Please model this.
Amino acid sequence: MKCLIVDDEIFCREFVATLLRSMGDCHQAGSGDEAIVKVRAALDANDPYDVIFMDIMMPGMSGHDAAKAIRGLEKERNVEKRVDIVMLTGLNSTNEAMDSFCNAQSSAYLVKPVSKDGLYNVMSKLGLMHR
Ligand SMILES: [Mg+2]
Model:
């Protein structure tokens, strides 16, 4: 299992990374732009991510726009199995998370602060727990 955790706050990235460490290879990005660079590199290397955790509220590019850009990259390359994107949202941005979900950019969302149970629940629903 290869995952990418995108959040402008290092504490949030580290928290999710710690919970997922035993399940696979976790990479981190501190911005939407950095995330796009990493996703593009993974696609180029034919070693795509299985799941991306994407904070919505980030300075510069929002998680919402970064997710859209990632879907664009996948479309451009005719990727067969799209990466699961889990939006990380504060209580004040659940509407954007829903929006992203309804527009098929994301597979799920988690409300911050992320809990261990919430995270494992989403991983299990996406069938990523034992991959
Ligand atoms: Mg943030």
About this structure: Strands lie at 2-6, 25-29, 51-55, 84-89, 108-111. The mean pLDDT is 92.
